[in-house]
Design a protein that fits this description.
- This protein has 10 helices and 17 strands.
- It is α/β, with parallel strands linked by helices and 503 residues long.
- Strands 1, 2, 3, 4, 7, 8, 9, 10, 11, 12 and 13 form an 11-stranded mixed beta sheet that branches.
- α5 packs parallel to α6.
- The longest helix has 23 residues.
- The two termini are 25 Å apart.
- Hydrolyzes cerebroside sulfate.
- It catalyses: an N-acyl-1-beta-D-(3-O-sulfo)-galactosyl-sphing-4-enine + H2O = a beta-D-galactosyl-(1<->1')-N-acylsphing-4-enine + sulfate + H(+).
């Protein structure tokens, strides 16, 4: 656990020439800007994340690069917009032919040449492919325990999500194999046992950290959680403990694993030499109503390029090194790879990066290097380009569109039936005074905004001219025979793909 009073510690300047730092990257799933205790949700129980926020540096203006899973994960691990790596449109599926190209360089691959131990547990969602071509173990991770795609991508209505025998909410996908659990490149369980899954992850993290520290080896642990994506699940230690129902119990389970990781870092004596970074992949799936998360004061959620779809909570914690506080500096998941590389003294990949390091923000609480953020829709294309641009405190929407993921809210702009609209002049919002995007600044009433819009347009034109779209990996299609099966020669599929072992 984070020691109380850590915010009173003297913050030392960090010396890269000293022992290599460790990195723990925590990545929540479908988590809204307003879902956590420290963001004022009245019934969320997140004591460990709340302490991270209190004793770390909390970001108010932090962004993912996509309002859905696979592309946002590609950008996080590579420091490049998903359009460059080809992880678009939409997300990868169990039988997807493509995946994150092997010539893309992940954070794990940046660190491994320096002697880092690397491990991942949780949701990969960057491809499985023929014979596991795109698994984390092919992308720089020494160890992997998890589900290779989203845990709703398989029949779930007959599975147990909460003890003792509460079935999973909803039906998820049908006609495909049940969700597998993988240890490295081996399927150890199919379907996965949701009740004991998080305990397995917690044990995995503890063993990895202890092993690395005993060997005096620097390490990188990546934990992209399944929480709080639908269908929510939780084990015995969390069920019924929150006031928020199943969603709150799932969130508490994620928070408990975070607490176990922090406890292990402290017990092994490496807490003061470890950067812990927390954020999430995209906004809440509002179509699930109270089971889908909350974007707080932000507009809409998952699937949209409004703030609720791509603006995420984020925290950087490094005991005794990063001074606690709050930063309003513009930052992104794109910036995590360059930051980690700088701290480890690792060379950057020799490709076009879209991320910049956050060193000035982390250690000086400065303004940082990022001046702008570009918002791509779920289905980016060269024809339409970016849907919106944020420059400083201003955001211009060139296109807006609703999404099924954000249905059921009172705001009709969020809904799937809200069509693609082109705006000329763009809708312009001051996100510092109006983070909910309620009041567009009309240039007739605000003539001083003409120059702001011109600056944004110039930046947009320059960025789009430099963007080279990679071949769409998702556009390569799917092959049902590629879906992971623990008994690949069995018949009939998908029903025969079962191997039930205890975690």
């Amino acid at each position: 656990m984070i020691p109380h009073g850590a915010d009173h510690m003297t913050v030392q300047s960090y010396d890269i020439s000293a022992s290599l730092p460790n990195f723990v990257l925590l990545f929540a799933d479908d988590l809204g800007y307003g879902d956590l205790g420290f963001s004022a949700h009245p019934t969320s129980l997140t004591p460990n994340l709340d302490r991270l926020a209190a004793h770390g540096l909390r970001f108010t203006d932090f962004y993912s690069t996509s309002p859905v899973c696979s592309p946002s994960r590609a950008s996080l691990l590579t420091g490049r917009y998903q359009t460059r790596s080809g992880i678009y449109p939409g997300v990868l599926y169990p039988g997807s032919i493509g995946g994150l190209p092997l010539n893309e360089t992940t954070i794990a691959e940046v660190l491994k040449p320096l002697g880092y131990a690397t491990a991942m547990m949780g949701k990969w969602h960057l491809g499985y492919g023929a014979n596991g071509t795109y698994l984390p173990t092919r992308q720089g991770f020494d160890h992997y325990l998890g589900i290779p795609y989203s845990h709703d991508m398989g029949p779930c209505h007959n599975l147990t999500c909460f003890p003792p025998d509460v079935k999973c909410y909803g039906f998820c996908d049908v006609g495909t194999v049940t969700v597998p659990l993988m240890d490295g490149e081996t399927i150890t369980q199919q379907p996965v046992d949701f009740i004991h899954l998080e305990d397995a992850y917690s044990n995995f993290a503890t063993e990895f950290i202890r092993s690395a520290t005993q060997k005096r080896q620097p390490f990188f642990l990546y934990y992209p959680s399944h929480h709080t994506h639908y269908p929510q699940f939780a084990g015995w230690k969390s069920v019924g403990r929150s006031l928020r129902g199943p969603f709150g119990d799932a969130l508490l389970e994620f928070d408990s694993t975070v607490g176990n990781i922090l406890k292990t870092l402290k017990e092994t004596g490496v807490l003061n030499n470890t950067l812990v970074f927390f954020t999430a992949d995209n906004g809440p799936e509002l179509m699930r109503m109270s089971r889908g998360g909350n974007s707080g004061l932000l507009k809409c959620g998952k699937g949209t390029t409004y703030e609720g779809g791509m603006r995420e909570p984020a925290i950087a914690y490094w005991s005794g090194v990063i001074k606690p506080g709050v930063t309003h500096s513009l930052s992104s998941t794109l910036d995590i790879l360059p930051t980690i590389a700088k701290l480890a003294g690792a060379p950057l990949p020799k490709v076009q990066l879209d991320g910049v390091d956050m060193i000035d923000i982390l250690f000086n609480h400065g303004t940082g290097q990022r001046k702008a953020m570009f918002y791509y829709p779920v289905d980016p294309s060269e024809k339409y380009g970016v849907f919106a641009v944020r420059l400083g405190k201003y955001k211009a929407h060139y296109y807006t569109r609703g999404a099924a993921h954000s249905d059921t809210t009172p705001d009709q702009d969020c809904h799937f039936i809200s069509p693609l609209r082109y705006h000329d002049p763009p809708l312009l919002f001051d996100l510092e005074s109006d983070p909910s995007e309620n009041y567009s600044l009309n240039v007739k009433d605000h003539p001083d905004m003409i120059s702001v819009l011109q600056n944004i347009k110039d930046l947009k034109d320059s960025f789009e001219a430099s963007m080279q779209f990679g071949e769409s990996e998702i556009g390569k299609g799917t092959d049902p025979d590629l879906a992971p099966c623990c008994n690949p020669q069995c018949s009939p599929k998908p029903e025969c793909c079962r191997c039930e072992t205890s975690l």
